[in-house]
Amino acid sequence: MKTPLALSDYIGLPARVQKTAGLHLFIGSRLLPAWTLAALCPLLTGDNGVFWIEGRHGFDAHALGKMARARGLDPKGVLSRVQLARPFSAFQIEALVTKKLPALAPSRPVILSDPLSLFYDEELPEKDARRTFAGFLDGLKALAVPVLGLVVERESPRRKFLDELLGISRGTARLTEDGPFPRLEKI
């Protein structure tokens, strides 16, 4: 049996930001964003926060608030520690990662929730998908903070984009759902 990992192994708190800078990937089913929110909740206290970039509507503020309340945390305080961005296209997420994030110089970890869904859009021409994805990758490589990519597995003729993300990742883990509780296992 592989050793289960904790979310905090991947997204450093402010004191560990430089140590853990770079892209790390979690791969799993559609449960992955909700599981990550649940695991993230107890870490969102004090000065700790994240910049969450939502690729496909997996961020549930109401559920995060309920989780905080159940843990005895102030829901408004927990929610205030999440800076949320919702790009609606591959072009917008590429601009966010290459221009907006470097200009903000975020001192908190970045979570990219299901970013590939924007590049897998069937209405996006292959040439545009390839060009914007190349810029997106360059932007990710340049960020000096921890970046956690949540990759929801799905079939796509553009699977090569996942392979390219894996190629620049500093670490990868899979959310396994066998057994009573989902858990992360290093790949």
Write the layout of secondary structure elements.
Blueprint: E1 4-5, E2 22-28, H1 32-40, E3 50-54, H2 61-70, H3 75-80, E4 82-85, H4 90-104, E5 110-113, H5 116-119, H6 126-142, E6 146-152, H7 160-168, E7 171-176, E8 183-186
Parallel strand pairs: 2-6, 2-7, 3-4, 3-5, 5-6
Antiparallel strand pairs: 1-8, 7-8
In short:
This protein is of the alpha/beta class and 187 residues long. It has helices at 32-40, 61-70, 75-80, 90-104, 116-119, 126-142, 160-168, and strands at residues 4-5, 22-28, 50-54, 82-85, 110-113, 146-152, 171-176, 183-186. The longest helix has 17 residues, at 126-142.
Structure, described:
With 187 residues, this protein is α/β, with parallel strands linked by helices. The protein has one domain (22-186): 3-Layer(aba) Sandwich (Rossmann fold), CATH 3.40.50.300. Helices cover 37% and strands 21% of the residues. It has helices at residues 32-40, 61-70, 75-80, 90-104, 116-119, 126-142, 160-168; strands at residues 4-5, 22-28, 50-54, 82-85, 110-113, 146-152, 171-176, 183-186. β7 and β8 form a beta hairpin. α4 (90-104) packs parallel to α6. The longest helix has 17 residues, at 126-142. The model is unreliable at 1-5 and 12-18 (pLDDT under 50).
